[in-house]
Amino acid sequence: AAEEGFDIEDVEGAIEEAGHGPLPVLAVVGRPNVGKSTLVNRIIGRREAVVEDKPGVTRDRVTYEAEWAGRRFKVVDTGGWEQDVLGIDASVAAQAEYAIEAADAVVFVVDAKVGATDTDEAVVRLLRKAGKPVVLCANKVDGPSGEADASYLWSLGLGEPQPVSALHGRGTGDMLDRVLEALPEAPAQTFGTAVGGPRRIALIGRPNVGKSSLLNKVAGEDRVVVNELAGTTRDPVDELIELGGVTWKFVDTAGIRKRVHLQQGADYYASLRTAAAVEKAEVAVILVDASESISVQDQRIVTMAVEAGRAIVVAYNKWDTLDEERRYYLEREIETELGQVAWAPRVNVSAQTGRHMEKLVPAIETALAGWETRVPTGRLNAFLGELAAAHPHPVRGGKQPRILFGTQAGTKPPRFVLFASGFIEAGYRRFIERRLREEFGFEGTPIHISVRVRE
Ligand code: GDP
Ligand code: GDP
């Protein structure tokens, strides 16, 4: 591929970068005010967003991408919630539990100036139970005189405390080195231990769309008790359910059934739970209440699944309640509000009557097939050649940027790298995506296209 002015190393580098599989997940947990958000900002090298958030404002984004020493991973930030009606211990425990569930490794942040509190001890018990690798971050060690404070935290029994000043950056590099040692290359949740096991489904959607009703309906009499099945993990929050002769793992079903009535922070928990479930799953079945207007919250959930790169099915529930008028408006709303997943298989169901339940599995299988599709390089380039001949990029400044060649760098979801002779406009990129979908399917999957421009 040293053709057309790209040297082979650039090409290989670009393919490797674009082809990365799903990233391992790091959760940052701890009490309020120990400096989690400040630390997350350091880790992801960001100056915007998190710290700007005003108290009480719901943050729907909890997962960020980060890179250290050439390795990429995701960070789940749990700093965005307020202490709520549950009381401090319960709130810390609840948010930590969700985050730890979804994580491959955990940074546990303690305020070294304050020392270990009872709440910290409670989190330590959760961490022990989860058995995930932990890096203990002794934060607010702003100078050498604070090192002694950090050493008191040996008492937590989590190994060596890493003295850090999230605020000034002191010690964060050493801590991140430890994090990389603790993090697996690929997420175990998604691709390690579970390879060859049941496919993993996250059933997500805003409160009251009918998630637990649907789960009960599909599980029916055939509900499989998780630890009865040999060789499966005894993860109490996941549930094995046989559908269409195949066993599927519904992840984080405890989260679906759990009825924690929270006043403050409920939306934040819901976001965290959705993010956690999505991280653990291969395919997200997004439930939308068809009887009500599609909301911003529905859109956020869709965005979360798309950004996580999961296979997606959209199920419109409560179909039994729809009259003709509502049906008419629903179709308009789907077009205008959910255009970002126009490619996802759609099923119109009723968890109450059981309507179209049998269509769920074929839709899930379609989405997973799209998610795993690989287009051979020869076919891709024949397609790109025809595309460029029939619909060349518009001429800009007397020049015509061309796609020179391309390759699919990865799957789950499909990722493409295109090499171009000049800047390719967003409109033309969207056109390429549309045509790729028409040609190769990709039903039910986001696709990533990155473009490299010859220098
Ligand atoms: P969170 O609630 O755990 O997310 O905590 P924040 O990141 O919001 O930090 C709480 C407070 O501690 C803020 O006022 C931060 O500026 C402060 N803080 C965070 N990290 C450090 C640090 O390393 N040293 C000092 N001195 N203060 C810090
Ligand atoms: P979740 O919060 O998403 O788990 O929602 P639930 O399963 O608890 O359902 C919320 C409410 O919607 C309950 O009162 C259900 O009985 C009702 N519901 C769920 N699915 C359907 C449906 O298909 N049709 C009708 N009419 N009601 C439904």
UniProtKB/TrEMBL annotation:
GTP 1 binds at residues 30-37, 77-81, 139-142. Residues 24-187, 199-372 form the EngA-type G domain. It comes from the Bacteria. GTP 2 binds at residues 205-212, 252-256, 317-320. Keywords: GTP-binding, Nucleotide-binding, Repeat, Ribosome biogenesis. InterPro entries: AAA+_ATPase (IPR003593), G_ENGA (IPR031166), GTP-bd (IPR006073), GTPase_Der (IPR016484), KH_dom-like (IPR032859), KH_dom-like_a/b (IPR015946), P-loop_NTPase (IPR027417), Small_GTP-bd (IPR005225). It holds the Pfam family MMR_HSR1. GTPase that plays an essential role in the late steps of ribosome biogenesis. Associates with the 50S ribosomal subunit. PANTHER family: GTPASE DER (PTHR43834:SF6). This is GTPase Der. It comes from Streptomyces lividans TK24. The lineage of its organism: Bacteria, Bacillati, Actinomycetota, Actinomycetes, Kitasatosporales. The gene is der.
